[in-house]
Amino acid sequence: MWILVATLWILVATLWILVATLWILVATLWILVATLWILVATLWILVATLWILVATLWILVATYCCNSCLDKLNKNIKLF
Question: Is the entire prediction scored with pTM above 0.70?
Answer without folding.
Answer: no
